[in-house]
Amino acid sequence: MHRSIRTVDDVLTLLDGLFAPEADRWTAKGADWWDGFYADRSKAVPFFVSKPDESLVAYLDGGLVPARGRALDLGCGPGRNAVRLAAAGFQVDAVDLSPTAVAWGEERAREAGVDVRFVCGDAFTTAELTGPYDLVVDSGCFHHLPPHRRISYLALLDRVLAPGGRFALTCFAAGEMGSELPDADFYEGAGLRGGLAYTAEELRWIFSDLEEVELRRMREQPPESPYFGEAFLWTGLFRRAAA
């Protein structure tokens, strides 16, 4: 059949194809690529450390997020934030495309003596992430999505974030890390260039259906700190309106 577009999902799938083979990094096909990325734990990758984001700890300690409830960690990797949330008393679901990352996260959770439900799969399509969640955390997933997949991302938040729930985001800051090309240029063969960088104004516009609680640069952490922090990242906290 020559005609393949009837729904929004058909359009998104078509646009995914413009980024092949990079598209495999955010779709269900991405397990192999990310498995290779996570295979060598000795690599000098900043977020391989077993430390939660300094911003997440600040939100918890400062009472900016609920003290308890259900939490979802999107693109959880080896589970450093998921483990911290479980230790704080949250019922945590953590999702990642990579079986290797999920196995590493499960190992860390066992070592910490906490319960985290790790889900291996595509957060946009898996039926296991039912919500509602009082807190959704994303540290490093959003900036690896192409522009058209923001539609899927916002739809996911709309579906799973509870009324009054909080959304905590960490992503590349423009001028520091990632690509600052206009959205349209990514569809002209440029690829994702390692990830998309955002200005504060762009993040406020994208997440304008949510109330901004805080948006700042992540605080750099020294090696001896118990927390993760890199100054090339934004960290933002947003709130969904109560019902």
Kindly state the percentage of residues in helix: 25-40%
- The gross shape turns out to be globular
The major sheet is characterized as:
7 strands, mixed
Order of helices and strands: HHHEHEHEEHEHEE
CATH topology: Rossmann fold
The structure class reads alpha/beta
Gap between N and C termini: 45 Å
Descriptive notes:
With 243 residues, the protein is of the alpha/beta class. The protein has a single domain (8-239), classed as Vaccinia Virus protein VP39 (Rossmann fold), CATH 3.40.50. Helix content is 27%, strand content 21%. The chain is built from 7 helices and 7 strands. It has helices at 8-17, 31-38, 54-61, 80-87, 99-112, 150-160, 200-206, and strands spanning 69-74, 90-96, 116-120, 133-139, 161-172, 211-217, 233-239. The chain has a 7-stranded mixed β-sheet. The longest helix is centred in the middle third of the chain and has 14 residues, at 99-112. It is globular and about 55 Å long. The chain starts with 7 loop residues before the first helix and ends with a strand. The model has no long low-confidence stretch (mean pLDDT 90).
List the helices and strands and how they pair.
Blueprint: H1 8-17, H2 31-38, H3 54-61, E1 69-74, H4 80-87, E2 90-96, H5 99-112, E3 116-120, E4 133-139, H6 150-160, E5 161-172, H7 200-206, E6 211-217, E7 233-239
Parallel strand pairs: 1-2, 1-4, 2-3, 4-5
Antiparallel strand pairs: 5-7, 6-7
Helix pairs in contact: 4-5
